[in-house]
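Batch 3, record 17
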Amino acid sequence: MTNIVPALLAATLETLIMVAVSVFFCAVFGLTLGAWLAISSPQGIAPSPAVHHLLAAFANVSRSIPFLVLIVLLLPFTRLLVGTAIGTAAAIIPLVVGGTPYAARLVEAALLDVDPGLMQAVVTLGASPAQAIWKVYVPEAIPGLIRAFTVLTITIINFSAMAGAVGGGGLGDLAIRYGYQRFRLDVLVLCCVILIVLVQAIQFGGTSLARRLDRR
Amino acid sequence: MRSSLRTTEGRSIPRNDSISLSAFPAIYVHGLTKRFAGAPAAALNGVDLEVETGTIHGVLGLSGAGKSTLLRCIARLEKPDAGEIRIAGSDWTSLSDSELRRVRGKMGIVFQQLHLVASRTVASNIALPLELHGTPRAETASRVAELLDWFGIADKAMQYPAQLSGGQRQRVAVARALATEPRVLLADEPTSALDPETRASVLATLNRIRDQLGVSVLIITHDLRSIAGLCDSVTILDAGQVVETGPALQVLNHPSSEVTRRMLAYTQSPSMELKDSRHRHFEEIAQP
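Prediction for the assembled complex:
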């Protein structure tokens, strides 16, 4: 049992790094894509059916591909970017590609939750579309965005465990290599316990923060 | 300190204009027409309207009369199909979006739902239009302090809208609308769904804005009873057309249209005594 502790700690650290880096990039790309989706939607502040349909199609196509298939599909691209298709760094590429459209849809929903009447009122105060977004739209949506990123982080943790199954490192990798292939049920259970604790902590933290920042 | 909060005795209303305000009506609307796609009839059909500088004008009408569309067109939230809109002499009809953004500070709007920014404090809400127009920080701070003081909400500066009463939220919304020292204030149903005390407070505030700041106010409402004593002049709208317009006392005491008579009948109660804002008593309201 004791000889597995360093491996568990290393795998947990790998998962945390994978998730943190992936969530960061998913958040950056997802916020951009999600903001455009929200702005161009029929309820948005600058409705544009053509732009909206194009972006929505992109988000939908990306989300239609099962994550395991996406990892395989992206292997050449991953190799091109990080020089290898195995390990934590290589796992981050499909995590970002798979997570971004998901993040974008969550961001879109959080932004569209802002009262459209408020956005019109801000326009009458003299706001440009950019000012309306950064001074009102995003600050008003912050509790919703925190809830969205909480869901996104948990999803990325699930994805990262899946990436582990194909050599991505982290807890998923450890659970498959030791728990499944070497019949170490204790390792399998410990990996699951760590993942459960991680998800619970993130959900609790996200919900509490969103509640604290919600001024409505 | 800028001029807009001086009382009428000492006020100097024109700020950056070389022409006198009184040369033009505060709001001039001519032949305004708006038809929404798929609608069987025009929402507005050749509406004419004039609001004199320093007066309160009420646009009254039953539901579906076109009041909200009129407000949205004057505020240029909707582009009219035809007609002309002039604010203090400037043509607002043909302005592009960017030109419109630059002049929006000349018109304040108080929406029925107020639309305060929940994530901003009271002071920050009032500062928002000034931030949007690029007003320097020091000037913004002093203007906000001035408005907080004038509206009696200085002690609420650091609170959030959700922590305020209905009346206090109304005052914040009006203060925000006046932050850029507009010539004109549009108020959409400012008294509907309010308790009597808050309603009286809103009416008193609008009265002060006209009398002490010289701001011209256009009120859109169906709540004839509340605003009858406040308005200097009124326009009655029905099916997108003006059916009657004139001094409030004349229109309400001697209505010439059936719609006005119906509205008066709906709102009149045995104990109702309408007074105007300068404490003149109405003559007995004409019976429908």
